[in-house]
Protein backbone atom coordinates (compact mmCIF):
# COMPACT_ATOMS: atom_id res chain seq x y z
CA UNK A 1 0.00 0.00 0.00
CA UNK A 2 1.29 3.44 -0.88
CA UNK A 3 2.19 6.07 1.68
CA UNK A 4 -0.84 8.12 2.86
CA UNK A 5 0.55 11.36 1.43
CA UNK A 6 1.05 9.89 -2.02
CA UNK A 7 -2.35 8.26 -1.75
CA UNK A 8 -3.88 11.61 -1.01
CA UNK A 9 -2.24 13.16 -4.06
CA UNK A 10 -3.32 10.26 -6.28
CA UNK A 11 -6.92 10.55 -5.19
CA UNK A 12 -7.42 14.15 -6.26
CA UNK A 13 -10.56 14.40 -8.36
CA UNK A 14 -11.31 10.71 -7.81
CA UNK A 15 -14.23 9.05 -6.07
CA UNK A 16 -13.07 6.61 -3.42
CA UNK A 17 -14.87 4.58 -0.79
CA UNK A 18 -13.27 3.96 2.59
CA UNK A 19 -13.77 0.42 3.89
CA UNK A 20 -12.87 -1.29 7.13
CA UNK A 21 -10.62 -4.32 7.02
CA UNK A 22 -12.53 -7.49 7.84
CA UNK A 23 -11.72 -10.29 10.25
CA UNK A 24 -11.93 -13.10 7.71
CA UNK A 25 -8.56 -14.70 6.88
CA UNK A 26 -8.60 -14.86 3.05
CA UNK A 27 -6.16 -17.77 2.70
CA UNK A 28 -6.97 -21.40 1.94
CA UNK A 29 -6.35 -23.56 5.00
CA UNK A 30 -4.05 -26.14 3.26
CA UNK A 31 -1.84 -23.33 1.93
CA UNK A 32 -1.74 -21.65 5.32
CA UNK A 33 -0.74 -24.84 7.14
CA UNK A 34 1.93 -25.93 4.65
CA UNK A 35 3.48 -22.44 4.46
CA UNK A 36 3.78 -22.19 8.24
CA UNK A 37 5.03 -25.78 8.52
CA UNK A 38 7.79 -25.09 6.00
CA UNK A 39 8.96 -22.18 8.15
CA UNK A 40 9.70 -24.60 11.00
CA UNK A 41 13.34 -25.63 10.92
CA UNK A 42 13.37 -29.11 12.52
CA UNK A 43 11.61 -31.98 10.81
CA UNK A 44 10.35 -33.49 14.08
CA UNK A 45 8.76 -30.19 15.10
CA UNK A 46 7.25 -29.86 11.65
CA UNK A 47 5.60 -33.28 11.98
CA UNK A 48 4.25 -32.39 15.44
CA UNK A 49 2.90 -29.09 14.07
CA UNK A 50 1.06 -30.83 11.21
CA UNK A 51 -0.40 -33.34 13.70
CA UNK A 52 -1.51 -30.46 15.92
CA UNK A 53 -3.23 -28.72 12.99
CA UNK A 54 -5.25 -31.87 12.27
CA UNK A 55 -6.21 -32.34 15.92
CA UNK A 56 -7.22 -28.69 16.21
CA UNK A 57 -9.52 -29.03 13.20
CA UNK A 58 -11.04 -32.30 14.38
CA UNK A 59 -11.69 -30.86 17.84
CA UNK A 60 -13.21 -27.59 16.61
CA UNK A 61 -15.40 -29.51 14.18
CA UNK A 62 -16.65 -31.65 17.08
CA UNK A 63 -17.42 -28.51 19.14
CA UNK A 64 -19.77 -27.21 16.48
CA UNK A 65 -21.27 -30.52 15.38
CA UNK A 66 -24.27 -30.45 17.72
CA UNK A 67 -24.99 -26.75 17.09
CA UNK A 68 -24.87 -27.26 13.32
CA UNK A 69 -27.05 -30.36 13.63
CA UNK A 70 -29.69 -28.36 15.52
CA UNK A 71 -29.51 -25.60 12.89
CA UNK A 72 -30.09 -28.03 10.02
CA UNK A 73 -32.90 -29.86 11.84
CA UNK A 74 -34.70 -26.59 12.55
CA UNK A 75 -34.29 -25.39 8.97
CA UNK A 76 -35.81 -28.62 7.66
CA UNK A 77 -39.11 -27.39 9.17
CA UNK A 78 -38.89 -24.02 7.40
CA UNK A 79 -37.39 -25.08 4.09
CA UNK A 80 -39.65 -23.47 1.46
CA UNK A 81 -39.51 -26.67 -0.63
CA UNK A 82 -40.16 -29.49 1.85
CA UNK A 83 -40.74 -27.76 5.16
CA UNK A 84 -44.54 -27.68 4.90
CA UNK A 85 -44.81 -31.49 4.85
CA UNK A 86 -42.50 -31.84 7.86
CA UNK A 87 -44.42 -29.22 9.82
CA UNK A 88 -47.63 -31.06 9.07
CA UNK A 89 -46.12 -34.34 10.29
CA UNK A 90 -45.04 -32.69 13.55
CA UNK A 91 -48.63 -31.49 14.19
CA UNK A 92 -47.40 -28.44 16.10
CA UNK A 93 -49.47 -25.57 17.43
CA UNK A 94 -48.86 -22.09 15.92
CA UNK A 95 -47.21 -20.90 19.15
CA UNK A 96 -44.80 -23.83 19.13
CA UNK A 97 -43.88 -23.10 15.51
CA UNK A 98 -43.19 -19.46 16.46
CA UNK A 99 -40.72 -20.62 19.11
CA UNK A 100 -38.94 -22.93 16.65
CA UNK A 101 -38.70 -20.09 14.13
CA UNK A 102 -36.98 -17.85 16.65
CA UNK A 103 -34.63 -20.68 17.67
CA UNK A 104 -33.64 -21.16 14.04
CA UNK A 105 -32.94 -17.45 13.57
CA UNK A 106 -30.85 -17.41 16.76
CA UNK A 107 -28.66 -20.26 15.48
CA UNK A 108 -28.49 -18.70 12.00
CA UNK A 109 -27.34 -15.30 13.27
CA UNK A 110 -24.72 -16.95 15.48
CA UNK A 111 -23.31 -18.85 12.51
CA UNK A 112 -23.32 -15.66 10.43
CA UNK A 113 -21.32 -13.85 13.10
CA UNK A 114 -18.83 -16.70 13.46
CA UNK A 115 -18.42 -16.77 9.69
CA UNK A 116 -17.62 -13.00 9.80
CA UNK A 117 -20.77 -11.88 7.99
CA UNK A 118 -22.11 -8.49 9.07
CA UNK A 119 -25.57 -6.99 8.74
CA UNK A 120 -25.47 -4.20 6.18
CA UNK A 121 -26.37 -0.90 7.86
CA UNK A 122 -28.33 2.02 6.42
CA UNK A 123 -25.15 4.07 6.06
CA UNK A 124 -23.35 1.30 4.18
CA UNK A 125 -26.28 0.81 1.85
CA UNK A 126 -26.63 4.56 1.25
CA UNK A 127 -22.94 4.82 0.38
CA UNK A 128 -23.12 1.74 -1.84
CA UNK A 129 -26.13 3.09 -3.72
CA UNK A 130 -24.88 6.69 -3.96
CA UNK A 131 -23.41 5.83 -7.35
CA UNK A 132 -24.51 3.95 -10.47
CA UNK A 133 -22.72 1.10 -12.20
CA UNK A 134 -24.58 -1.18 -14.62
CA UNK A 135 -28.04 -0.78 -13.10
CA UNK A 136 -29.54 2.65 -13.74
CA UNK A 137 -33.18 2.13 -12.77
CA UNK A 138 -34.80 2.82 -9.39
CA UNK A 139 -35.61 -0.61 -7.92
CA UNK A 140 -38.10 -0.96 -5.08
CA UNK A 141 -39.39 -3.92 -3.09
CA UNK A 142 -43.07 -4.89 -2.99
CA UNK A 143 -43.23 -4.83 0.79
CA UNK A 144 -46.86 -5.96 0.82
CA UNK A 145 -45.68 -9.47 -0.15
CA UNK A 146 -43.09 -9.79 2.65
CA UNK A 147 -43.64 -10.85 6.25
CA UNK A 148 -42.96 -8.15 8.84
CA UNK A 149 -43.38 -10.16 12.05
CA UNK A 150 -40.66 -12.83 12.00
CA UNK A 151 -37.57 -10.59 11.88
CA UNK A 152 -39.17 -7.81 13.91
CA UNK A 153 -39.79 -10.22 16.77
CA UNK A 154 -36.22 -11.51 16.59
CA UNK A 155 -34.63 -8.05 16.72
CA UNK A 156 -36.90 -7.05 19.62
CA UNK A 157 -35.41 -9.92 21.63
CA UNK A 158 -31.85 -9.64 20.25
CA UNK A 159 -30.57 -6.06 20.08
CA UNK A 160 -28.40 -5.04 17.14
CA UNK A 161 -26.95 -1.59 16.52
CA UNK A 162 -27.48 0.36 13.29
CA UNK A 163 -30.21 -1.86 11.89
CA UNK A 164 -31.47 -0.70 8.47
CA UNK A 165 -35.03 0.54 8.05
CA UNK A 166 -36.07 -2.62 6.20
CA UNK A 167 -34.78 -5.05 8.87
CA UNK A 168 -38.31 -6.11 9.81
CA UNK A 169 -38.87 -7.42 6.26
CA UNK A 170 -35.49 -8.76 5.13
CA UNK A 171 -31.86 -8.78 6.25
CA UNK A 172 -28.80 -8.37 4.05
CA UNK A 173 -25.58 -9.92 5.35
CA UNK A 174 -22.34 -9.00 3.60
CA UNK A 175 -18.71 -10.16 3.78
CA UNK A 176 -15.56 -9.44 1.84
CA UNK A 177 -14.69 -6.70 -0.64
CA UNK A 178 -13.64 -7.10 -4.25
CA UNK A 179 -13.43 -5.15 -7.49
CA UNK A 180 -15.57 -5.50 -10.60
CA UNK A 181 -14.48 -3.96 -13.89
CA UNK A 182 -16.47 -3.75 -17.10
CA UNK A 183 -14.95 -2.70 -20.42
CA UNK A 184 -17.28 -1.78 -23.26
CA UNK A 185 -18.07 1.00 -25.70
CA UNK A 186 -21.07 2.16 -23.61
CA UNK A 187 -22.17 4.10 -26.69
CA UNK A 188 -25.81 4.62 -25.68
CA UNK A 189 -24.78 5.57 -22.14
CA UNK A 190 -22.31 8.15 -23.48
CA UNK A 191 -24.92 9.56 -25.85
CA UNK A 192 -27.29 9.78 -22.90
CA UNK A 193 -24.64 11.69 -20.95
CA UNK A 194 -24.13 14.11 -23.86
CA UNK A 195 -27.88 14.72 -24.10
CA UNK A 196 -28.05 15.16 -20.34
CA UNK A 197 -25.21 17.69 -20.31
CA UNK A 198 -26.69 19.51 -23.29
CA UNK A 199 -30.05 19.55 -21.50
CA UNK A 200 -28.40 21.05 -18.42
CA UNK A 201 -26.73 23.69 -20.61
CA UNK A 202 -30.06 24.62 -22.22
CA UNK A 203 -31.70 24.82 -18.81
CA UNK A 204 -29.05 27.29 -17.73
CA UNK A 205 -29.42 29.19 -21.00
CA UNK A 206 -33.21 29.45 -20.65
CA UNK A 207 -32.96 29.96 -16.86
CA UNK A 208 -35.17 26.95 -16.11
CA UNK A 209 -32.57 25.01 -14.12
CA UNK A 210 -34.04 26.04 -10.76
CA UNK A 211 -37.22 24.14 -11.59
CA UNK A 212 -35.33 20.83 -11.72
CA UNK A 213 -32.56 21.33 -9.19
CA UNK A 214 -34.29 19.86 -6.14
CA UNK A 215 -33.92 16.23 -7.12
CA UNK A 216 -30.22 16.44 -7.95
CA UNK A 217 -29.49 18.02 -4.58
CA UNK A 218 -31.31 15.24 -2.83
CA UNK A 219 -29.56 12.61 -4.91
CA UNK A 220 -26.08 13.79 -3.91
CA UNK A 221 -26.66 14.48 -0.24
CA UNK A 222 -25.14 11.12 0.77
CA UNK A 223 -21.92 11.36 -1.23
CA UNK A 224 -19.98 10.47 1.88
CA UNK A 225 -16.64 9.07 0.85
CA UNK A 226 -14.97 11.86 -1.10
CA UNK A 227 -11.31 12.73 -0.60
CA UNK A 228 -12.00 15.65 1.71
CA UNK A 229 -13.85 13.33 4.10
CA UNK A 230 -10.86 11.04 4.58
CA UNK A 231 -8.35 11.48 7.36
CA UNK A 232 -5.42 9.49 6.02
CA UNK A 233 -3.44 9.64 9.26
CA UNK A 234 -6.33 8.44 11.43
CA UNK A 235 -7.64 5.75 9.09
CA UNK A 236 -4.55 3.79 8.10
CA UNK A 237 -6.25 0.58 9.33
CA UNK A 238 -8.85 1.05 6.59
CA UNK A 239 -8.38 0.59 2.88
CA UNK A 240 -9.74 2.45 -0.11
CA UNK A 241 -11.44 1.40 -3.31
CA UNK A 242 -11.90 3.73 -6.26
CA UNK A 243 -15.11 4.07 -8.21
CA UNK A 244 -14.67 4.76 -11.93
CA UNK A 245 -17.96 5.89 -13.40
CA UNK A 246 -19.02 7.26 -16.76
CA UNK A 247 -20.65 10.22 -15.00
CA UNK A 248 -17.22 11.44 -13.86
CA UNK A 249 -15.37 11.12 -17.14
CA UNK A 250 -14.60 13.91 -19.60
CA UNK A 251 -16.19 13.12 -22.93
CA UNK A 252 -14.36 13.77 -26.18
CA UNK A 253 -14.62 12.57 -29.76
CA UNK A 254 -11.84 10.08 -29.00
CA UNK A 255 -13.32 8.33 -25.97
CA UNK A 256 -16.88 8.54 -27.31
CA UNK A 257 -16.07 5.91 -29.96
CA UNK A 258 -13.51 3.91 -27.96
CA UNK A 259 -13.84 1.30 -25.22
CA UNK A 260 -14.04 2.55 -21.66
CA UNK A 261 -13.37 0.66 -18.43
CA UNK A 262 -15.55 1.40 -15.43
CA UNK A 263 -14.89 0.05 -11.96
CA UNK A 264 -16.99 -0.58 -8.87
CA UNK A 265 -16.20 -2.18 -5.49
CA UNK A 266 -18.16 -5.35 -4.80
CA UNK A 267 -19.44 -7.24 -1.82
CA UNK A 268 -17.68 -10.59 -2.21
CA UNK A 269 -20.55 -12.45 -0.52
CA UNK A 270 -24.13 -11.40 0.23
CA UNK A 271 -26.78 -13.48 2.01
CA UNK A 272 -30.40 -12.32 2.07
CA UNK A 273 -32.91 -13.70 4.61
CA UNK A 274 -36.67 -13.10 4.32
CA UNK A 275 -40.10 -14.72 4.39
CA UNK A 276 -43.27 -14.11 2.42
CA UNK A 277 -46.31 -12.73 4.16
CA UNK A 278 -48.57 -15.25 5.90
CA UNK A 279 -52.20 -14.67 4.93
CA UNK A 280 -54.83 -15.72 7.40
CA UNK A 281 -54.53 -18.01 10.42
CA UNK A 282 -52.19 -20.98 10.35
CA UNK A 283 -54.42 -24.04 10.16
CA UNK A 284 -53.80 -27.56 8.90
CA UNK A 285 -53.78 -26.26 5.35
CA UNK A 286 -50.58 -27.17 3.46
CA UNK A 287 -50.80 -23.92 1.52
CA UNK A 288 -50.71 -21.82 4.65
CA UNK A 289 -48.00 -23.89 6.28
CA UNK A 290 -45.88 -23.53 3.16
CA UNK A 291 -45.82 -19.79 3.84
CA UNK A 292 -43.79 -20.50 6.98
CA UNK A 293 -40.85 -21.07 4.64
CA UNK A 294 -37.77 -18.93 5.38
CA UNK A 295 -35.66 -18.02 2.35
CA UNK A 296 -31.86 -17.87 2.64
CA UNK A 297 -30.20 -16.81 -0.63
CA UNK A 298 -26.46 -16.60 -1.23
CA UNK A 299 -24.86 -14.33 -3.86
CA UNK A 300 -21.28 -13.57 -4.92
CA UNK A 301 -19.46 -10.55 -6.36
CA UNK A 302 -22.33 -8.07 -6.21
CA UNK A 303 -21.33 -4.52 -7.24
CA UNK A 304 -22.16 -2.11 -4.42
CA UNK A 305 -23.99 0.31 -6.68
CA UNK A 306 -26.11 -2.57 -8.06
CA UNK A 307 -27.06 -4.07 -4.70
CA UNK A 308 -30.75 -3.84 -5.63
CA UNK A 309 -30.47 -6.96 -7.79
CA UNK A 310 -30.38 -9.16 -4.66
CA UNK A 311 -33.52 -7.67 -3.11
CA UNK A 312 -36.55 -9.96 -2.76
CA UNK A 313 -39.83 -9.32 -4.59
CA UNK A 314 -38.64 -6.48 -6.78
CA UNK A 315 -41.30 -4.39 -8.50
CA UNK A 316 -41.03 -3.96 -12.25
CA UNK A 317 -39.20 -0.66 -12.73
CA UNK A 318 -40.79 2.26 -14.53
CA UNK A 319 -40.45 5.99 -14.87
CA UNK A 320 -40.25 7.59 -11.45
CA UNK A 321 -42.81 10.22 -10.36
CA UNK A 322 -40.03 12.82 -10.60
CA UNK A 323 -39.33 11.74 -14.21
CA UNK A 324 -43.01 12.21 -15.04
CA UNK A 325 -43.02 15.62 -13.34
CA UNK A 326 -39.95 16.65 -15.33
CA UNK A 327 -41.38 15.19 -18.52
CA UNK A 328 -44.76 16.95 -18.26
CA UNK A 329 -43.34 20.07 -16.62
CA UNK A 330 -40.78 20.62 -19.37
CA UNK A 331 -43.47 20.21 -22.04
CA UNK A 332 -45.78 22.68 -20.31
CA UNK A 333 -43.00 25.20 -19.68
CA UNK A 334 -41.82 24.85 -23.26
CA UNK A 335 -45.33 25.32 -24.64
CA UNK A 336 -45.91 28.40 -22.48
CA UNK A 337 -42.54 29.86 -23.52
CA UNK A 338 -43.28 29.32 -27.22
CA UNK A 339 -46.78 30.83 -26.98
CA UNK A 340 -45.41 33.79 -25.02
CA UNK A 341 -42.72 34.37 -27.64
CA UNK A 342 -45.28 34.30 -30.46
CA UNK A 343 -47.44 36.91 -28.69
CA UNK A 344 -44.52 39.30 -28.38
CA UNK A 345 -44.23 42.09 -30.98
CA UNK A 346 -40.86 40.70 -32.07
CA UNK A 347 -40.74 36.98 -31.69
CA UNK A 348 -37.21 35.81 -30.83
CA UNK A 349 -36.75 32.76 -33.07
CA UNK A 350 -33.50 31.72 -31.32
CA UNK A 351 -35.21 31.58 -27.94
CA UNK A 352 -38.10 29.63 -29.43
CA UNK A 353 -35.71 27.18 -31.05
CA UNK A 354 -33.72 26.76 -27.84
CA UNK A 355 -36.89 26.01 -25.89
CA UNK A 356 -38.21 23.57 -28.48
CA UNK A 357 -34.86 21.78 -28.78
CA UNK A 358 -34.55 21.52 -24.99
CA UNK A 359 -38.03 20.01 -24.67
CA UNK A 360 -37.51 17.53 -27.52
CA UNK A 361 -34.06 16.47 -26.32
CA UNK A 362 -35.27 15.95 -22.78
CA UNK A 363 -38.27 13.86 -23.92
CA UNK A 364 -35.98 11.80 -26.17
CA UNK A 365 -33.46 11.42 -23.37
CA UNK A 366 -36.12 10.20 -20.93
CA UNK A 367 -37.56 7.66 -23.38
CA UNK A 368 -34.35 6.19 -24.77
CA UNK A 369 -32.64 6.13 -21.39
CA UNK A 370 -35.52 4.17 -19.90
CA UNK A 371 -35.53 1.65 -22.76
CA UNK A 372 -31.77 1.15 -22.48
CA UNK A 373 -31.91 0.78 -18.72
CA UNK A 374 -34.76 -1.74 -18.94
CA UNK A 375 -32.67 -3.94 -21.24
CA UNK A 376 -29.70 -3.69 -18.86
CA UNK A 377 -31.95 -4.46 -15.90
CA UNK A 378 -33.27 -7.66 -17.49
CA UNK A 379 -29.71 -8.78 -18.30
CA UNK A 380 -28.52 -8.10 -14.74
CA UNK A 381 -31.43 -9.98 -13.18
CA UNK A 382 -30.76 -12.97 -15.43
CA UNK A 383 -27.05 -12.83 -14.58
CA UNK A 384 -27.77 -12.63 -10.84
CA UNK A 385 -29.92 -15.76 -11.08
CA UNK A 386 -27.51 -17.86 -13.14
CA UNK A 387 -24.03 -16.51 -12.45
CA UNK A 388 -24.06 -14.64 -9.15
CA UNK A 389 -26.40 -16.77 -7.03
CA UNK A 390 -24.22 -19.38 -5.36
CA UNK A 391 -26.86 -21.34 -3.52
CA UNK A 392 -29.96 -21.09 -1.37
CA UNK A 393 -31.53 -22.78 1.63
CA UNK A 394 -29.78 -25.87 2.95
CA UNK A 395 -26.83 -25.50 0.57
CA UNK A 396 -26.10 -22.02 1.93
CA UNK A 397 -26.29 -23.24 5.53
CA UNK A 398 -23.89 -26.11 4.87
CA UNK A 399 -21.49 -23.67 3.23
CA UNK A 400 -21.71 -21.37 6.26
CA UNK A 401 -21.07 -24.20 8.72
CA UNK A 402 -17.91 -25.20 6.85
CA UNK A 403 -16.86 -21.53 6.67
CA UNK A 404 -17.07 -21.23 10.45
CA UNK A 405 -14.86 -24.26 11.00
CA UNK A 406 -12.26 -23.15 8.45
CA UNK A 407 -11.98 -19.65 9.96
CA UNK A 408 -11.79 -20.92 13.53
CA UNK A 409 -9.06 -23.42 12.65
CA UNK A 410 -7.00 -20.79 10.80
CA UNK A 411 -7.24 -18.35 13.73
CA UNK A 412 -5.98 -20.98 16.19
CA UNK A 413 -3.14 -22.15 13.94
CA UNK A 414 -1.84 -18.63 13.20
CA UNK A 415 -1.99 -17.48 16.83
CA UNK A 416 -0.36 -20.69 18.16
CA UNK A 417 2.43 -20.42 15.56
CA UNK A 418 3.15 -16.82 16.60
CA UNK A 419 3.33 -17.76 20.28
CA UNK A 420 5.54 -20.72 19.41
CA UNK A 421 7.96 -18.47 17.52
CA UNK A 422 7.81 -15.30 19.65
CA UNK A 423 7.43 -16.72 23.15
CA UNK A 424 5.32 -14.61 25.51
CA UNK A 425 3.01 -11.94 24.07
CA UNK A 426 0.34 -9.57 25.28
CA UNK A 427 -3.02 -9.70 23.55
CA UNK A 428 -2.18 -6.51 21.65
CA UNK A 429 1.22 -7.83 20.52
CA UNK A 430 -0.32 -11.14 19.47
CA UNK A 431 -2.92 -9.31 17.39
CA UNK A 432 -0.26 -7.19 15.66
CA UNK A 433 2.13 -10.08 15.02
CA UNK A 434 -0.59 -12.28 13.55
CA UNK A 435 -1.62 -9.54 11.12
CA UNK A 436 2.02 -8.94 10.16
CA UNK A 437 2.59 -12.66 9.54
CA UNK A 438 -0.42 -12.86 7.23
CA UNK A 439 0.75 -9.76 5.38
CA UNK A 440 4.40 -10.81 5.03
CA UNK A 441 3.93 -14.48 4.16
CA UNK A 442 0.72 -14.33 2.13
CA UNK A 443 0.39 -10.71 0.99
CA UNK A 444 -3.10 -10.43 2.49
CA UNK A 445 -4.54 -7.93 4.99
CA UNK A 446 -7.15 -8.67 7.63
CA UNK A 447 -8.25 -7.42 11.03
CA UNK A 448 -7.23 -10.50 13.02
CA UNK A 449 -9.82 -11.50 15.64
CA UNK A 450 -7.37 -12.02 18.49
CA UNK A 451 -10.04 -12.25 21.21
CA UNK A 452 -11.75 -15.17 19.51
CA UNK A 453 -8.40 -16.87 18.81
CA UNK A 454 -7.22 -16.57 22.43
CA UNK A 455 -10.56 -17.86 23.70
CA UNK A 456 -10.23 -21.02 21.60
CA UNK A 457 -6.58 -21.53 22.58
CA UNK A 458 -7.57 -21.37 26.24
CA UNK A 459 -10.50 -23.71 25.64
CA UNK A 460 -8.12 -26.19 24.00
CA UNK A 461 -5.83 -25.83 27.01
CA UNK A 462 -2.67 -25.23 24.97
CA UNK A 463 -1.81 -21.70 26.19
CA UNK A 464 -1.11 -20.31 29.64
CA UNK A 465 -1.14 -16.78 31.03
CA UNK A 466 1.40 -15.33 33.43
CA UNK A 467 0.78 -12.93 36.33
CA UNK A 468 0.81 -9.82 34.11
CA UNK A 469 -1.51 -11.25 31.45
CA UNK A 470 0.98 -12.33 28.79
CA UNK A 471 0.18 -15.49 26.81
CA UNK A 472 2.55 -18.38 26.31
CA UNK A 473 1.92 -21.63 24.44
CA UNK A 474 2.95 -25.09 25.62
CA UNK A 475 5.39 -27.14 23.54
CA UNK A 476 4.20 -28.83 20.38
CA UNK A 477 4.43 -32.35 21.78
CA UNK A 478 2.68 -31.33 24.99
CA UNK A 479 -0.07 -29.57 22.99
CA UNK A 480 -0.76 -32.78 21.08
CA UNK A 481 -0.90 -34.71 24.35
CA UNK A 482 -3.35 -32.22 25.88
CA UNK A 483 -5.76 -32.42 22.95
CA UNK A 484 -5.32 -36.18 22.75
CA UNK A 485 -6.05 -38.70 20.04
CA UNK A 486 -9.23 -37.77 18.19
CA UNK A 487 -11.96 -40.08 16.93
CA UNK A 488 -11.03 -39.26 13.34
CA UNK A 489 -7.45 -40.44 13.96
CA UNK A 490 -8.69 -43.73 15.42
CA UNK A 491 -10.94 -44.28 12.39
CA UNK A 492 -8.08 -43.53 9.98
CA UNK A 493 -5.76 -45.87 11.88
CA UNK A 494 -8.32 -48.68 11.81
CA UNK A 495 -8.89 -48.09 8.10
CA UNK A 496 -5.15 -48.28 7.37
CA UNK A 497 -4.78 -51.47 9.42
CA UNK A 498 -7.67 -53.15 7.59
CA UNK A 499 -6.16 -52.17 4.25
CA UNK A 500 -2.86 -53.89 5.09
CA UNK A 501 -4.55 -57.20 5.99
TrEMBL record:
Pfam families noted in UniProt: DUF3754 (PF12576)
InterPro entries: DUF3754
Superkingdom of the source species: Eukaryota
Descriptive protein name: Aminopeptidase
Amino acid sequence: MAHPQSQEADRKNKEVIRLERESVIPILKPRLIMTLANLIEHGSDRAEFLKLCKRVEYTIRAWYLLQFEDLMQLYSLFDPVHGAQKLEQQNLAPGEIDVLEQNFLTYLFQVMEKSNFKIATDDEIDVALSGQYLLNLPITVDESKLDKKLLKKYFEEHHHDDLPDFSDKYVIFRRGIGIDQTTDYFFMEKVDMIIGRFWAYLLRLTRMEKLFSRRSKRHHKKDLKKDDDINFEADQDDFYVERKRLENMELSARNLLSKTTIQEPTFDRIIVVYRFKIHGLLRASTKLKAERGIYVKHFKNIPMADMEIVLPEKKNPGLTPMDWVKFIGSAVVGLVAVVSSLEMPKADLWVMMAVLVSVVTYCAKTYFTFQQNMASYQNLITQSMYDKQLDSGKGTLLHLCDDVIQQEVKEVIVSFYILMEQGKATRQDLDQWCEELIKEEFGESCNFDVDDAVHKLEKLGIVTRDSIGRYQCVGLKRANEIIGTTTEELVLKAKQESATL
